[in-house]
Amino acid sequence: MKQTLDALHASPAVGGSMPSERPRGMEMNRIDQRFAQLRAQGRKALIPYIAAGDPAPAVTVELMHALVQGGADVIELGVPFSDPMADGPVIQRATERAIAQGVGLPQVLDFVRAFRQTDAVTPIVLMGYANPVERFGVDAFVAAAQAAGVDGVLIVDYPPQESEAFAAALKAAGIAPIFLLAPTSTEQRMADVGRIASGYVYYVSLKGVTGAGHLDTSAVAAMLPRIRAHVRVPVGVGFGIRDAQTARAIGALADAVVIGSRLIELLEAQPAAQAADVARRFIQDIRQALDAA
Prior knowledge:
Helix content is 44%, strand content 12%. By secondary structure, it is α/β, with parallel strands linked by helices. The chain starts with 29 loop residues before the first helix and ends with a helix. It contains twelve helices and nine strands. The protein has a single domain (28-292), classed as Aldolase class I (TIM Barrel, Alpha-Beta Barrel).
């Protein structure tokens, strides 16, 4: 049942609050602003991923704030889906726990709205799969994401060459369409991504699913110049980053470090009431390593 991210490149075509504070059209959104600030400071972005609703819906917003307190620059909030084909067992378990507690796309948007009540600056990216978006309705999703205060959307199985209308709708709402690149990505895919992506591009450093394999920093170093020849937005690297040492190594190469599976492993080993403290401490360690580099 599991596929690698590379198999998703041939996926089918894409189907057809705070509004006054949302940037529209030509203006920079929160992601652009955050990367501009980091460039001015000579720092790299730290982007943790959590599955919305895990370990419990009642702690999701608190957990998001804890990530910011620990030093997160952008938060990737996973939208639970029953068949997360690009995700390994750790994130699969997290999404299963969230779904079992009644969390779907509407609840994820509620989490973002609640977070925005006390944090109007930290960028939030929704990461997930096409099915929940299609069921919600693409146009309705874009409008609801904008109203909730979402800054970026990464739909794993929306290929860039078939997503121009979707990307345009997101950009018109001030939301960045974010896309994946992988070690097997062709020059044409890089060009397709570079043409329509905004915010940042997520480079998957390993073949396979999330949490798989051993990080090869030399391979990442060789790939990033090829990507940057086509892509004008920042490049974040994820998959295989599990500690301060690997984060520092990737931070020396990329514009951003994305970390998910290891964080979720730590959270699932603790009672839900301790999730925020565990996440804050872990992200603080990664932040210190990145800044030291």
